[in-house]
Amino acid sequence: MNDTYTPRPEDHFTFGLWTVGNRGRDPFGDQVRPALDPADSVRHLAELGAYGVNFHDNDLVPFGASAAERDKIVRNFRRALEETGLKVPMATTNLFYHPVFKEGAFTANDPKVRRYAIAKTLDSIDLGVELGAEIYVLWGGREGVECDAAKDPRAALDRYAEALNVLCEYVRDRNYKLRFALEPKPNEPRGDMFLPTVGHALAFIGHLEHPEMVGLNPEFAHETMSGLSFHHAVAQALWAGKLFHIDLNGQRIGKFDQDFRFGSEGIRDAFYLVKLLEDSKWNGMRHFDAHAYRTEDQAGVWEFARGCMRSYLILREKAQRFYEDEEIMAALREAKASGIKEPTIPAGGGRDSIAGLRSEKFDLDGMASYGYGHERLDQLVLELLLGVR
Amino acid sequence: MNDTYTPRPEDHFTFGLWTVGNRGRDPFGDQVRPALDPADSVRHLAELGAYGVNFHDNDLVPFGASAAERDKIVRNFRRALEETGLKVPMATTNLFYHPVFKEGAFTANDPKVRRYAIAKTLDSIDLGVELGAEIYVLWGGREGVECDAAKDPRAALDRYAEALNVLCEYVRDRNYKLRFALEPKPNEPRGDMFLPTVGHALAFIGHLEHPEMVGLNPEFAHETMSGLSFHHAVAQALWAGKLFHIDLNGQRIGKFDQDFRFGSEGIRDAFYLVKLLEDSKWNGMRHFDAHAYRTEDQAGVWEFARGCMRSYLILREKAQRFYEDEEIMAALREAKASGIKEPTIPAGGGRDSIAGLRSEKFDLDGMASYGYGHERLDQLVLELLLGVR
Amino acid sequence: MNDTYTPRPEDHFTFGLWTVGNRGRDPFGDQVRPALDPADSVRHLAELGAYGVNFHDNDLVPFGASAAERDKIVRNFRRALEETGLKVPMATTNLFYHPVFKEGAFTANDPKVRRYAIAKTLDSIDLGVELGAEIYVLWGGREGVECDAAKDPRAALDRYAEALNVLCEYVRDRNYKLRFALEPKPNEPRGDMFLPTVGHALAFIGHLEHPEMVGLNPEFAHETMSGLSFHHAVAQALWAGKLFHIDLNGQRIGKFDQDFRFGSEGIRDAFYLVKLLEDSKWNGMRHFDAHAYRTEDQAGVWEFARGCMRSYLILREKAQRFYEDEEIMAALREAKASGIKEPTIPAGGGRDSIAGLRSEKFDLDGMASYGYGHERLDQLVLELLLGVR
Amino acid sequence: MNDTYTPRPEDHFTFGLWTVGNRGRDPFGDQVRPALDPADSVRHLAELGAYGVNFHDNDLVPFGASAAERDKIVRNFRRALEETGLKVPMATTNLFYHPVFKEGAFTANDPKVRRYAIAKTLDSIDLGVELGAEIYVLWGGREGVECDAAKDPRAALDRYAEALNVLCEYVRDRNYKLRFALEPKPNEPRGDMFLPTVGHALAFIGHLEHPEMVGLNPEFAHETMSGLSFHHAVAQALWAGKLFHIDLNGQRIGKFDQDFRFGSEGIRDAFYLVKLLEDSKWNGMRHFDAHAYRTEDQAGVWEFARGCMRSYLILREKAQRFYEDEEIMAALREAKASGIKEPTIPAGGGRDSIAGLRSEKFDLDGMASYGYGHERLDQLVLELLLGVR
Known about the structure:
4 copies of one chain form a homotetramer. Chain A is built from 15 helices and 10 strands. Helices cover 46% and strands 9% of the residues of chain A. Chain A is globular. In chain A, helix 2 (38-48) packs parallel to helix 4 (67-84), helix 9 runs parallel beside helix 10 (267-279) and helix 12 runs antiparallel to helix 15. Chain A has helices spanning 17-20, 38-48, 57-60, 67-84, 111-130, 153-174, 198-205, 220-225, 230-239, 267-279, 298-324, 326-334, 351-359, 364-369, 374-385; strands at residues 13-16, 52-56, 90-92, 135-139, 144-145, 179-183, 192-193, 214-216, 247-248, 286-288. Chains in contact: A-B, A-C, A-D, B-C, B-D, C-D. Chain B binds chain D through residues 24-32, 96-99, 101-103, 141-142, 146-147, 187-189, 191, 227, 252-258, 260, 264, 293-295, and chain D through 24-32, 96-99, 101-103, 141-142, 146-147, 187-189, 191, 227, 252-258, 260, 264, 293-295.
């Protein structure tokens, strides 16, 4: 294989323990692969060229483990990190597997469940920080409802915000260098989930006590499930200064949460996403939140991980070549693409300039008949993607 | 028919001129109904019990009309309003029909097109204000893209914000009593549109110069096209103090923009929406942005309008009866529904109360085995909806 | 509660052991309810008024049970059936849970897996017949693919047909009174599944050796996931004489397989479906393939089961009242609804009648301007559904 | 540009007059391009390397044209065909634009409308045959319903079949060498349409009087709108011997009917489709039923047409290279891909072979733990698609 597409730590690729450790259980089928020791995952990922590994508290420390067990596990895990140089850039809490969260976690109707969810998250924050995490992801897997009568969504947002405010307060009090990243999802496992898209989560942040501490962890699969453009969503998060983390994978619109290998579905969106991240010189992690098909044994899992990273690097190279392709550059000029970067009213929106605008003569026929050449431009990009130019 | 469901002006139902005036054209078919005189629409809507009528500039004044024609049309229209008592609570601009906007309006790549879009909107604002509008809706029908290479979405958001800032500046300069309401839509007519959901639009407003002047006009069909819960979206807009207007209609998930009669599709969501609007004592207009099936003649159009209003009133009555139903109230207690309104940490998030939280003992087994009774609650509400309780 | 909506055995409602026995496991969460003894399920369902109970082989007899264990289980189960009078109208095979089927069952690439799948099904057919089943459902939960390169879909259809032919041959050889019902599904757990809709399965049957032995088991959720009209699909199955069984539940378009309580989502489609089944005097089972929300304890499961049946009965009563409603009947005349039942060319399609047709004068303007009154008709049916007429 | 991707007549690419002649009208916008003379379209398409051109009756002869006008138009069109060598392999009828069809055509409730639809189709068949068409496509653009109460779907299928039977009868009587191809579509412009997928249409054909005369015209966009795998659908049509024609374009799941340039969306599905057509040595036309973005002028339309054909040729070359790639071939062996072509029970399904099957010993653990290597295989194909191997 071409060396160009061999991942290196400086590419900042990360995986969750739960991704390579996924055992292939699904709603209709039992697990098909044996459990992976987290330290083994670390060593394999390091060999493959990853930069880091992320986890939910219970990916590392089983639910209900004693303090002694926890410490032993953390020690072993830390040793693997030190041996391999792998980092833990992000951590998160499992607030969805245990039946206690069946009706919600931060937005459960029962205040005791909400308090337990916060307490579990605080413990998990300590664990993450202990291992070096600087980003803490919050996916509200059970924050939602099937029976709409059972929960007032406005009050649920109050409680969601309250939980975030407490977490921020705690991090500030401890002087942790930690920021939070909300991960939106429209549905599954709940019928409808709160903060269903990047937009809803961005809007929510504006109502928190420490909005500067909270950003987004958009996930390709989650935005795509709703048929929304993932790269547009990420662009809006970047535009708002709120892209704190990102979850890369593959997904087809209007399906169950597939979490396929990055690049395996939605090549076009994947390309524009990579181009956007690279164009904007985004300096965060390229995290893969995906898992191998259930048809795979453990060898297939490592092929899956390798494939995620290779696809990113292949698309990154194409994103670079985009700008070196003179026909594409000419087509962009035909499309007046740079015009979107010019202020519409260079003089600003004062009274005189508005008056000037209204007296301006517009050649409507000329403007209406202009052809923007998008078919040619789009085809050129497709051919770049297909590797025939 | 039951008088309870006969609309009255105090119910604040409004229609767009373009809704009852829709001539049944679609992507594959010609128009099937003759043009309606706006003044006739006003008279019919008044007879049916509507409160008001809204319009795009070109619904009332044809594109390219002279000043004299404009004045004559406005005079006739105003006379109909005065005769009937109908109000014009909202106005908007057509920035999508004319070929000049084919590549965008406020986010067109060509700055001249953007300036023209703003100028046309300013003229239209004057017209709306002249007729009494206090809400100005902005639907970015052409703000989007098919060929993603052609437009940087971050720059597009810059231009979108710039346009909004100019419009706000103008309204402030004129001392108009007018607020803006953004209408999100995910796609159609463009492949992907900017501000695709209520969430994305809410988030965008936070970046404007006068965020207090700009809110949302969520549309049932638009949020539903993406498979998102409309009533959750409206709840988040209310929570943010940003529900300025609302567009009611019917739609099935993952389809073309159907704009069916309110209540005709998505009865369950429609019920929770009406309940939410009534519970929150929202005092805005109940606007129907829908049109009659293409199978209808003009008589069918008026049946369509009557049906929209009746369905709202039927659902409103059910929303009231929800609270009078003792079995439903008991099921809400079983679901601990009021618990979501209690603060999670009544003492606030200070250091001591966080420490207290972490030392709290949780009866996980008890919390996990509790049954919330959502099946019974949901069935009771369904039976309320079906009129058998 | 109204006695009209209390189910009785003659209503022919059935449940799968796996439906009331569902323990609330989902892709992100552990089971929340204890295991149910099949005999207990039988007794509870009988109390609730069900007619019968259906099962996958491993719902009743655990995978890998010895012959002695099997016999003991069957004996206990049969005793519960005899005590309660409950029937077993349908049985099916679990060809999806065990890892051996991870790449497919009847369409696995490995011939040994396919042979095992057939052998397991033959054993399961014996079990079903032993307990009285006359319908055998085949849901190809693993018949599909994510990596399209790995399997030729034409060859997969060959193998699928081969498996069906063997099963039919076996049933004929044993003189079992058993017919097969294919259950289509578009995706989940596989990325894409073969025979994804009612249509694809109906078409497939025409290529089997004993097409008369094979029909359909359409499922509300499965057809709805693709955004297709379920009642249209069932109508086509009835039209083809191929509705052998039916799976009723609730589902929203473009989501994971929700299997919600019948009537809880898609009220309108559910109504037209019930009306179709009753209008056509379909004499099969009304089977619920659904499960309780994960928020529920065991009491909630029985409420779920009760709700499924009540909703059917409520809708059945509305379907009867449809024909007694004079305004609806008048609206049907306006819509020329009976015209669809008249032959278009009463004289048949011979040369003369075709010549006559071509010389016929058509009043195109009159035909084009006729209003079909669908808005009024649809609103009347909505009001019937909402119980306000 | 690479000559390999320059289309030639022997590639059998065809376009509809309505595709390159599309004027950019959409539900919210006016047309943006001037009308094209059909003879000019013929000349341009010939220059671009197309094989043929197809049409609806009214694409060529305006609705209501006199016999003399018709003859003149046909004469001019035929001259362009003769000059260029372009063929007319397919023709079809416009049964959707005129208001007379607003409630349906072959399945209209009004028998007069149905008779007119048949008469118009017979005229159009004569026109198609006169110009050499051997395939006649039937897209039921208005065969469906929004108000479900208004039409019994079983009776609608009776009428649909009756219409097909009359058309077949006519073609046989005239000894035309013409076969029919049904084009399924799930919705748009109707709320739900009859024969919504390839499967439903295939099943329907089995109920016609001359099933051998009727096959399918599957369209990429239409099957994809429902989220179904297009190449699986085409595979089933080929398997049934019923792929008579095909409509190629681009579409995203769960959106309005986009009819984008072939290859522009859904690259992966497009690749497997091209591979399937080439693998099966399908000898029909590669027809593009798509249109240029509304941003384009006429030059953009020709780029659109060129792009459709180039993308097919690029994918065709990749489909050939698939078999020359030794790593892919090795991965197919790992996936046991050829196993799907072996009979499951080589001895057939007789009593002895079934008994043998049931006594066979299966190594379930071995079969369950085997890894099929789909992640690696899928990645290799992706890299082939992206042109990096």
